[in-house]
Write a structure and sequence with these properties.
The complex is a heterodimer of chains A (about 270) and B (about 300). By secondary structure, chain A is an all-alpha fold. In chain A, about 70% of the residues lie in helices and about 0% in strands. Chain A has a single domain, classed as MetI-like fold (Orthogonal Bundle), CATH 1.10.3720.10. Chain B has a domain of about 180 residues: MetI-like (MetI-like fold, Orthogonal Bundle), CATH 1.10.3720. The chains are: A mainly alpha (about 270), B mainly alpha (about 300).
Chain lengths: ~270, ~300
């Protein structure tokens, strides 16, 4: 599989996110003389309504979205896979309970639930991660359950059971390796969904709080000055769009490459819809 | 059919029960006192107790939950803490605006996506296909809270064709509806294309071609009739997602619907209204899915047989 430009965009995103705290950025530094200033040679992307440098805030926002996406997707992936795989392997009562829970979540727009949860829990990054994870794990649980059901009667699993291997070992060593591919594809699309959801909730004022920067809250603050300073909306929007487009392209390629069919776009994808 | 209908109705009731209960318990579990929000921090303890009692907030949680559930059944959803009006009246006033927006967005999306998907499939691998799928990828990747302001920048502020926000006159719905419908159009056109391509690979299509039917006849009389079933299922789910997406779109354009009411109420900690909005949106979503499923079972007998 060749990477191409989407991979470079994502690498740059990750690099900025991981090094942001060491870069000489001043995302919160106000300069009264620079309020709503357009792009200049020394200040590439101009300044916002409080005179803060848009470029610095853009990088700081990249760090926010990367951290939230990484946290939410890994937590949802771990928890969802575990619950889905164990329920499918054990079967019986607990599996039926899980299916009922999954049915509730799947029959409801994820973004709405995330909005309601974030609204009730209150703003802030921690609550944002909690709300998105509460919505996000279900997709992985559904997928892991379906996958384990399809492979749990394989001969090597039956052989392991006959040898007296304990259930945790069978799930970890004999089942999970077989179901990794679709989960990886789902997780990739999950990153796009969480990036949009984080920005969307921050756009609504339910996510990252000022003075911290998020691409979503930058767009919200910029909308008021659309006529005089369109760069305030264009810059974070372009960054967001590029990252999401790259993740979607990468997900499509991964799906073709790993030959995974029937992976649905995750729940919180509704953020963009 | 009755067995299938009953199992679907039971499922729908279960979903609504689950979602509303989840929101109810979360609201009561998290810190933050609505009485304090209403009266302010300077209110006396006696006043607070009086209001708490009047709102029924001093009763045990289980009792409050049961009375909330019975309120859902009898459509008595309590009174807004901020507006001091029955929640049901507030929802009523806003619901039509959201339905109007979602319906127009749906029509726009279908009108764009179905021809686009058909052309892409009929001319697979050509520039038509690549252009259509390129647009689809763009549509999925543009968040609506960025698309909305971009449309405003070009068509309202730049060209002056449409109002920036609000709901006055027919022109005011155009930009919100496009913003809301764009990603549905993107997802739908992909779905139409892949569903049609799958059908076009079937044996009966080859037989039809062998009988000397023209491409157009094969496409319209044979392929499309079989390809629209999976599209229908997706459509039901996505129409529901429109209701979720409406929350952000309504906020961008100041559209006076349920979504903007939900966000306002969250900001004001007006919990009865938050609960009402979530209830009404989930009810609509579940109903739409139910109707789609029943329609699907009507046109495809295999579904009914599987369940009975």
């Amino acid at each position: 599989m060749r990477g191409g430009w989407p991979t470079w965009v994502l690498l740059l995103w990750a690099l900025v996110a991981l090094t942001a705290s060491w870069l000489p950025l001043h995302p919160e530094q106000m300069a009264l003389e620079a309020i709503l200033q357009g792009p200049t040679a020394g200040n590439w992307l101009g300044s916002d309504d409080l005179g803060r440098p848009v470029f610095d805030r853009l990088l700081s926002g990249a760090s926010t979205s990367f951290q939230v996406a990484a946290l939410v997707v890994s937590l949802s992936l771990l928890f969802g896979t575990l619950v889905g795989a164990v329920a499918a392997y054990v079967g019986g009562f607990w599996e039926r309970v899980l299916v009922m829970i999954i049915d509730i979540f799947m029959a409801f727009p994820g973004i709405l639930l995330a909005i309601a949860l974030a609204g009730v829990l209150g703003p802030g990054i921690d609550n944002l991660v909690l709300a998105l994870t509460l919505v996000g794990w279900v997709g992985f649980a559904r997928l892991a359950r379906a996958q384990v059901l399809s492979v749990k009667r394989h001969e090597h699993v039956v052989a392991a059971q006959a040898l007296g291997t304990r259930a945790p070992r069978i799930i970890l060593h004999h089942l999970l390796p077989l179901i990794v591919a679709p989960l990886v594809v789902e997780a990739t699309f999950g990153v796009a969904a969480v990036v949009i959801a984080e920005s969307g909730l921050s756009f609504l004022g339910l996510g990252v709080q000022p003075p911290d920067a998020s691409w979503g809250s930058m767009i919200r603050d910029g909308v008021r000055y659309l006529l005089v300073a369109p760069h305030l909306v264009l810059a974070p929007g372009c960054a967001l769009f590029l990252v999401v487009l790259s993740v979607n392209l990468l997900g499509d390629r991964l799906r073709d490459w790993l030959d995974v069919r029937n992976v649905r776009r995750p729940l919180v994808q509704g953020a963009g819809t | 059919m009755p067995a299938y209908l009953i199992s679907r109705l039971f499922m729908a009731a279960w979903v609504i029960f689950g979602v509303t209960s989840l929101v109810f318990f979360l609201i009561h579990w998290v810190p933050g006192d609505p009485v304090e929000v209403m009266l302010g921090e300077s209110a006396s303890a006696v006043d607070r107790e009086a209001l708490r009692h009047a709102l029924g907030l001093d009763r045990p949680l289980l009792e409050q939950w049961l009375s909330f559930l019975s309120g859902v059944v009898t459509l008595d959803l309590n009174v807004s803490l901020y507006h001091r009006q029955p929640v049901i009246d507030l929802l009523n006033a806003r619901y039509m605006a959201t339905l109007e927006l979602a319906l127009i967005a749906f029509v726009i999306a279908v009108a764009i996506a179905i021809p686009m998907g058909i052309i892409a499939a009929a001319r697979q691998g050509t520039a038509w296909d690549h252009t259509a799928m390129g647009f689809s990828l763009l549509g999925v990747s543009i968040p609506n809270f960025w698309l909305g302001p971009l449309l405003v920048l070009v068509f309202s502020l730049g060209l002056g064709w449409f109002p920036v926000s609000g709901r006055e006159g027919a022109a005011s719905v155009v930009l919100p509806a496009i913003t809301l419908g764009a990603s549905l159009a993107a997802i739908l056109s992909r779905m139409v294309r892949s569903s049609l391509l799958e059908v076009l690979g079937e044996d009966f299509i080859r037989s039809a071609r062998a009988r000397g039917l023209s491409n157009r006849q094969v496409l319209i009389r044979h392929a499309l009739r079989n390809a629209w079933l999976p599209v229908l299922t997706l459509l039901g789910m996505q129409v529901g997602a429109l209701l979720g997406g409406a929350v952000i779109t309504e906020t961008i354009f100041n559209w006076p619907g349920l979504g903007s009411l939900l966000i306002e109420s969250i900001q004001r900690r007006d919990y009865p209204v938050v609960q009402g909005c979530v209830l009404l949106i989930s009810l609509s979503y579940v109903l739409i899915n139910l109707l789609t499923d029943l329609l699907y079972a009507r046109v495809d007998p295999r579904i009914r047989l599987e369940h009975s």
